[in-house]
């Protein structure tokens, strides 16, 4: 009786082992051991400043031996910060039905990309009676990010609040692609009558290429005394502008009313090059 019991146990173990091996073998056969692949045409392509998914996937295809064409399943995983001005890396990925993942990269160049530029909503010429808040004056704009004024950092090594004088402040800003720019501009606090003429310009910060002539009157809007009397005829401009040399220049606009009170504002001109100083 014990012999029959042992034989039965042996046969049951053998049968279980056969079933397990058969099941494992069938699963092994059905399992996809191939990996998908991504093929990319061109190591570098140009895209718009706000590229669409279609632009980024141009020339990208994917294939898997089991699943076939996977091109429609390719995704853009991420886009790097600039590796050099205007150029990023794009990371692609695709997954087959068995969750096998393939990845690839290529470079893109943003067409018509230009470095961010600072902006000013008024000049950095203040009366000693005014509150000086440079952060409210200087902003920045970027062709990819738009308004990046919130990222502007203002620093100064010598400015003293309430003290008449000429100072130098530095503005810094970084866009989402990691490009950082800086600009050193003069800040003037002067003794000026509260009723001095007011001079308005259409722009207070101008970027130009080397060799570009700048007519200060092109940016002049109006000059009026405290009674709104037009003082355009009394306006004069003093400037150190040199179009041939990259740098930061100031065009000073002055107007004097009948009581001898002088208004003053500044157009800052940046000749591109090493103007950031």
Short description:
With 277 residues, the chain is mainly beta. Helices cover 12% and strands 42% of the residues.
Main β-sheet, in a few words?
A: 4 strands, mixed
Number of domains: 2
| Order of helix and strand elements from N to C terminus | HEEHEEEEEEEEEEEEEEEEEE
By CATH reckoning, the class of the largest domain would read: Mainly Beta
Strand proportion, as a percent range, falls in 35-45%
Q: Based on CA inertia axes, which overall geometry fits? A: elongated
Would you tell me which CATH topology of the largest domain applies?
A: Immunoglobulin-like
What does the average pLDDT come to? 89
Strand arrangement within the widest β-sheet reads 2-7-6-5
Cα-based radius of gyration, to the nearest Å = 34 Å
Structural class: mainly beta
Number of strands: 20
How far apart the termini lie comes to: 101 Å
- CATH architectural grouping of the largest domain: Sandwich
* Low-confidence sequence ranges: none
Helix count? 2
Roughly how much helix do the residues carry, as a percent range? 10-25%
User: CATH homologous superfamily of the largest domain?
Assistant: Immunoglobulins
